[in-house]
């Protein structure tokens, strides 16, 4: 049997992180940086798991053995395999699973959801189940719930379906975004702790209920306007709105010296807009502008020790084959 291969894009939140937890809208895109999974038949009994990014290989006798012995850091993989095998009544044996990702882990780019979707997609093809992207998204959400408690659903939706995702009142709208634009994503070099950041924001809201409500209302308006400007192709105004959103996130206490250095250098070198993306307190910064300016910013940040990529919107979502 030929190996089954699936890949899924990462994501970045353009507007509305944290505010979305309190019922306000958020806007996210799938990005053209992905995770992939290959599943093949093995001549060895049991389940072999190869995690390329961590340079680790595990061998398990069966699903029960895997679930009991896999390191807690990789528990989401075990949960996904268990959910999949139980739901579709599949006995997993004599298989080799290899997962790798081009996304920085714990950086706000959806590496967890992207890896999960690629794993589920490869399983879908390997066992000929003909599941669609929405089926995979639902399964991935179940995986995320087991690990992260109460995720918004943005990550699994964007990573499975691709495109531009507008989230409001527990409802998603997906746009197949045809007006491509370049986005510079810069890694601070520090992972973020989503649960800790959410806890800090809640403490801020409890301490300053009036101020936090006003700030979140402003983020909501910025997000709604951001969608309009992006659909109209007005990237200069879109960038201005990114800056406004970032200022609010900074007021809430989610920025760091690294994030501020990256946004300052980006804006001073002609980026239309620059802001943290995701939980904050580390992770990544996103910037938009003309391609030549983004390349210049990338080089300046590289000299300061920051890693960056220039990418664009992925409209496809989960993909099969190489």
TrEMBL record:
Keywords: ATP-binding, Cytoplasm, Kinase, Lipid biosynthesis, Lipid metabolism, Magnesium, Nucleotide-binding, Transferase. Residues 228-306 form the GHMP kinase C-terminal domain. Pathway: Isoprenoid biosynthesis; isopentenyl diphosphate biosynthesis via mevalonate pathway; isopentenyl diphosphate from (R)-mevalonate: step 1/3. Residues 81-161 form the GHMP kinase N-terminal domain. GO terms for cellular component: cytosol. The keyword Transport does not apply. Its EC number is 2.7.1.36. It comes from the Archaea. This is Mevalonate kinase. The gene is mvk.
